[in-house]
Amino acid sequence: MRGEKEKMLAGDLYDASDAQLQSDLAANHRWLARYNAALAEGPAQWHALLKERLAMVGDGAVIRPPFHCDYGFNIHLGAGVFINFNCVILDVVEVHIGERTQIGPGVQVLAADHPRDPAKRATGEEFGRPVRIGRNVWIGAGALILPGVSVGDDALVGAGSVVTRDVPAGATVVGNPARVRG
């Protein structure tokens, strides 16, 4: 029988109130408190702290504090990734961000999702859908990347856009919902 954490990591419905998951969240909250308190320390210290918690942190990857995430251990950052202030990553499943990608302030990358059926949602169960952001992508300030979305290499997501569908490589998308701009 699989535990709730195994269900979560597989993208299946799981109970987020599970004791193991609550323990993982508490550990991440302690790490986030340390990370966000290091604002004055600079990129070298941020990088070292990121390596303590995230699944993968490429050379030169930086997240400017404050930063918020669910677990941390599902986040993969390629080399040279730059994430500006106030980013939120809900990483109940894997979130991959490719090398040299730049993410503006206030961006939210959301891999956590909820059942559409109100009766199922009322049980408190949730699930995740992985998010993949390619290499050399630029995501403008305040954009939202929704669960299950892939953003192709060299794409551009306009500030404030809500990305509900996959973005082709090299495309520019803007708006709510984000659409390819020609």
Automatic annotation (TrEMBL):
Acetyltransferase implicated in the O-acetylation of Nod factors. It comes from Frateuria terrea. Gene3D superfamilies: Hexapeptide repeat proteins. InterPro entries: Hexapep, Hexapep_transf_CS, Hexapeptide_acetyltransf, Mac_dom, Trimer_LpxA-like_sf. Residues 5-59 form the Maltose/galactoside acetyltransferase domain. It holds the Pfam family Mac. Belongs to the transferase hexapeptide repeat family. GO terms for cellular component: cytosol. Signal peptide: none annotated. This is Nodulation protein L. SUPFAM superfamilies: Trimeric LpxA-like enzymes. Keywords: Acyltransferase, Nodulation, Repeat, Transferase. GO terms for molecular function: acetyltransferase activity; O-acyltransferase activity.
